[in-house]
């Protein structure tokens, strides 16, 4: 059997650690958007893995002006981004134990004023792409070559503000802006197709003037290939549409109902870790 290239192996290992970090935080609070965190871990590993990630960062200096900006539009995915920031080295691993506690820098919804490496405050959905558009314009005006990435959910495609921002990015030909859409097919009110049909997603982004690529968001090589294609496109904004599975890496959570805010019993956290470690071996 042919082994995966070393970078792919390292990124898979980073994704497993991100999942493990998320489970650690979830157990501290006994709750959290753990299903989404497990689902986007591969995406975040590709961006944040130290020495192998897509982002230009200085982990010890998260305010460095030359950094690439990664905007978490979906603020309730903060548990996932904290895990990635710990993997990158911006947040100390031991700080994850404070998740959601009073006076913690790691609140349950992302807040830029609290957390190093958190670029914007999330919560109200549909704002991230508009902020990314403004950042992209400002960076270009200043001659700063940094790129802006924003992670959206498929549920945010219900928001008119997302499509207004998509039009603005295309109108201004913002080649420094990339959207990443987590298509996990689930919203707070139920499966996405039953709330508001958004498909065909890829064709819609293309119609709005974006270079769009759709990949399996839980497949590291596919993510790398997709990002390579986007890097080669410089004439305007790009979007990586990622099909993911909530609870990925922990089989008994992948099939759990009511998965948007997933209930996990006290005795299940260790079982989840055991399944995660078994899958990675």
UniProtKB/TrEMBL annotation:
Name the needed cofactors.
thiamine diphosphate
Any idea where the Transketolase N-terminal domain is? 15-276
Query: Keywords assigned by UniProt?
Result: Thiamine pyrophosphate
Molecular function (GO) terms for this protein are: magnesium ion binding
Q: Does the keyword Metal-binding apply?
A: no
Return the InterPro entries for the record: THDP-binding, Transketolase_N
What the record says about family reads: Belongs to the transketolase family.
Could you identify this protein by its name?
A: Transketolase
């Amino acid at each position: 059997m042919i082994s995966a290239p070393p970078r792919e192996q390292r990124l898979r290992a980073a994704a497993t650690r991100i999942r493990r970090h998320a489970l650690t935080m979830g157990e501290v609070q006994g709750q959290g958007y753990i299903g989404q965190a497990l689902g986007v871990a591969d995406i975040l590993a590709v961006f944040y893995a130290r020495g192998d990630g897509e982002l230009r960062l200085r982990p010890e200096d998260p305010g460095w002006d030359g950094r690439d900006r990664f905007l978490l539009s979906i603020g309730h995915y903060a548990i996932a981004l904290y895990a990635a920031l710990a993997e990158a080295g911006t947040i100390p691993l031991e700080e994850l134990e404070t998740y959601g506690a009073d006076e913690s820098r790691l609140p349950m919804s992302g807040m830029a004023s609290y957390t190093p490496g958190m670029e914007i405050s999330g919560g109200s959905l549909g704002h991230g792409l508009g902020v990314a558009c403004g950042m992209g314009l400002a960076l270009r005006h200043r001659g700063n070559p940094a790129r802006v990435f924003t992670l959206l959910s498929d549920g945010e495609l219900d928001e008119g503000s997302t499509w207004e921002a998509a039009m603005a990015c295309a109108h201004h030909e913002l080649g420094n802006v990339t959207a990443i859409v987590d298509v996990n097919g689930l919203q707070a009110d139920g499966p996405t197709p039953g709330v508001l049909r958004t498909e065909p997603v890829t064709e819609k982004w293309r119609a709005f003037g974006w270079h769009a690529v759709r990949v399996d968001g839980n497949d590291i090589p596919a993510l790398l290939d997709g990002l390579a294609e986007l890097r080669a496109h410089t004439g305007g904004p790009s979007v990586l549409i990622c099909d993911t599975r909530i609870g990925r890496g922990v089989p008994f959570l992948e099939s759990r109902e009511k998965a948007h805010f997933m209930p996990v019993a006290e005795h299940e956290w260790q079982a989840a870790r055991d399944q995660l470690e078994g899958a990675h071996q």
